[in-house]
Amino acid sequence: MNLEKKIWELSEKYLEDCSHYIVDVSVSKGGKKNIAIYIDSDKDSSVKIEDCSALSKKLSNHFEVEDFIEGAYVLEVSSAGMGNPFKIARQYQKNLGRQVQVIETDGKETKGILHRIDKDTISIEIHKKKGEVLNKTISLEAIKQTKLVITI
Asked: Which CATH code is given to the segment(s) 89-148?
């Protein structure tokens, strides 16, 4: 099992009693390891600095006690961020009913309301100018990137 997967699983263990979840884990290659962990919340509220700090402390303690990582490392735990692309299915579930922008692997771009997600597909509700509503189903495999459309 690679280091990223081990860190992901350990992080999930520490988050299992709350509404937060892991979105991504990356570990740089080379000398001093930079470990970046991105978390999100099922709640509409944002991830707070205290949430990131608490996970960081738990992981750091585990890394030190268990000699989990060889050599020096830098650990960063932060929010996945509203403007960043979705990485996992749970982010789609959290954002049902919100406007998203989907870019497919063939370059097609779709903006609309995220209406549904299931095991293999999402459904986008597209509102046309004359009141017409279209539903477009997109395979998760055909998605290059999905982002939340942020409106002010």
From this structure: 2.30.30.100
Homologous superfamily of domain range 3-79: RimP-like superfamily, N-terminal (3.30.300.70)
Pull the structure tokens for residue 65.
């006690």
Please tell me the distance from the alpha carbon of residue 3 to that of residue 30, in angstroms, as a whole number: 13
Would you state the structure tokens that stand for residue 29, as one six-digit string?
């290659």
CATH code 2.30.30.100 region(s) in the chain: 89-148
Per-residue confidence band for 31, with pLDDT thresholds at 50, 70 and 90: confident
Tokens 């046309």 appear where?
128
User: Is residue 35 predicted with pLDDT exceeding 90?
Assistant: yes
What are the φ and ψ backbone dihedral angles of 46, each rounded to 5 degrees?
A: -80, 165
Q: Where in the chain is CATH 3.30.300.70?
A: 3-79
